[in-house]
């Protein structure tokens, strides 16, 4: 390993120790009851640190291979530090009164359902909220580049029996948050349909479609269609003329 590579591994190992073992809350990371966080989420948090956007899972595993003290452990798609100085969430003893307002960010496509059903943990163990709006934005952008930021009326929710658990200095957790304690922007209006209505006299059978030559965006194809239509009309006129001629001829013969 080159000297430059070795320095990178040491720098990454120190950052990992701080993020996983000392202050995961500063990065919006909430370990499970055994101290694990998803590697994918951990990498997204690392990429927010200046000059660390290059880090991939291979770099993390390289740091582990050079970890002679066994500080880090990977199990499946999860990673943790074995030397932790923070306290894990204790649902029995860590019930506190949160600040009046908390913040959380959600994906845009999930927002209508949240207004209806409230906040649920989904694949996580808890609903994650923060006292800092900026931190809520950072966490939410890991899932959606343009998240919707919600305000949680935590004080009123607590009065109505919703339990909040603090984690670190800026994070609060809850098992769920009902919709009537959530405030957010109004739902975006659906854009009007751009489809043109069909003529009233037009009937369309199932599985068919309407193609109008005059609306064809290809100019050459539109001209060819007009020529074909004109050619057919001329043929029809010619046939009508011939039939009329034959009829007059037969009438003349029969008259004689």
Structure characterization notes:
With 256 residues, the chain is α+β, with helices and mostly antiparallel strands. Among the domains are: 3-81, Arc Repressor Mutant, subunit A (Orthogonal Bundle), CATH 1.10.10.970; 101-183, Alpha-Beta Barrel (ADP-ribosylation fold). The chain is built from 7 helices and 9 strands, in the order αβααβββαβαβαβββα. It has helices at 3-22, 39-47, 57-65, 111-117, 133-140, 154-159, 219-255, and strands at residues 37-38, 72-75, 78-81, 101-106, 127-130, 148-153, 165-167, 171-174, 182-183. The strands form 3 sheets. A 3-stranded antiparallel beta sheet has the order 1-3-2. Strands 4-6-9 form a 3-stranded antiparallel beta sheet. A 3-stranded antiparallel beta sheet has the order 5-8-7. The longest helix has 37 residues, at 219-255.
| Percentage of β-strand residues | 5-15%
The count of DSSP E runs of length 2 or more, i.e. the number of strands, is 9
Q: Label the overall shape.
A: flat
- CATH top level assignment of one domain: Alpha Beta
Oligomer: single chain
Q: What does the main sheet amount to?
A: 3 strands, antiparallel
Average pLDDT metric: 82
> Structural class of the secondary elements?
alpha+beta
**Looking across the biggest beta sheet, what order are the strands in?**
1-3-2
Helix content: 25-40%
CA-atom Rg in angstroms: 35 Å
H/I helix tally: 7
Taking pLDDT < 50 over at least 5 consecutive residues as the criterion, the unreliable ranges are none
